[in-house]
Every structure is written in C-alpha cells, then in structure tokens.
Amino acid sequence: MSEIKYPEIEGFEDCKIIQCSPPGTASTLLFNILYGFISPTLPVDVGYGAKDENKHIVCTHDTDIDGFIKRFPETRLFFISSERHAQNKKIHSKYYTYDNVVVFEFNQLNETPDNTLEDIVALVYENTRELLPDNIHMSMKDGLTRAQKLNKRYEEIKHHNFDYIDRFYHIHGSHRGRH
Length: 179
Fold this sequence. Notes:
This protein is of the alpha/beta class. Helix content is 31%, strand content 15%. The strands form two sheets. It has a four-stranded parallel β-sheet with strand order 2-1-3-4, sandwiched between helices. It is globular.
C-alpha cells in the first residue's frame, strides 16, 4: 500500500485529535465517525505510531494521554476515547478531569434499535464539537455517511478471517465481537 499523504486541513495548523481507546470499545466506529466529520475521503491510518507527527487524527489503543502530551508539547491536543466498563476496558480515571478529553461508554456507541446510528453520530458530533476549536470544520452529515458505509463494508467482509483487512476503514473480517 502506498504511503498516505496527509492533506492540510484548515484549523489543524497547531492541533491534532488523538482517538485513544482500549480494544473492544467501539473505537473503530468512533475513529471512522471522526474521520467522516473532518476528512471523509481519507483512509484511516492507525500506523502504530509511525508518522503521528504528520497526522491530524491519530488512532491508537495507547491510552497514555500524559505520554502524548509530553510527546507533542507544542501541539494543542484533543483526546477522544471510548471505554467498556463492563469488561474493565477503561482509560485512567485521572483523564476524566482533563478539559481536552471526551470519553464515550461502549453502550453510547453500540448500535441498537433504541440507539440508532444517527443517534450515535449526533452524540459524537455534539461532544466533539464542544471539545474542538470552532475553526475546525466538521460535517455531521459526512460523519453519518462514513459510518453507514463502514457498516455496509463490514457486512461485505464479515465472513472473512480476521487476517482480511479493509485498509480504508481499518476493519477486519470477523472484527466485531472479538473482545
């Protein structure tokens, strides 16, 4: 796969979003919604720390928020995390008090008849919009569209082995329900 080019996005000159969540907490949906809000045509690049300095959105299972703050001292950082309390998959509680952190519980991100994808995207949008500077353009419609396309793509690949990966959305075959 060719290297992803990170386009300049207005409003991100001195900041980045770090979507950091433990595995199995709906983080894949969360980071795809975030990409949809801000850069809907860009493939997800988890990159495992590679070239994070060049990324506007960093997606990781590393929840050491203080470590990121030390790593990027000249950058305004915004952290968006998901947790799953029922399985003890949480970020450190001290981060709940940070004014640049928003945390979603798995049940808020889990699609059910009573919690539609539209509801989920609206919740993420409202909380993210409150967190980020106003000069960062966000489109709730694009976030919903990307989440819908993610779900459609997952339906196409869900019977593949976990080794199969769609690199645009960063989803695997047999991805859901593994944790």
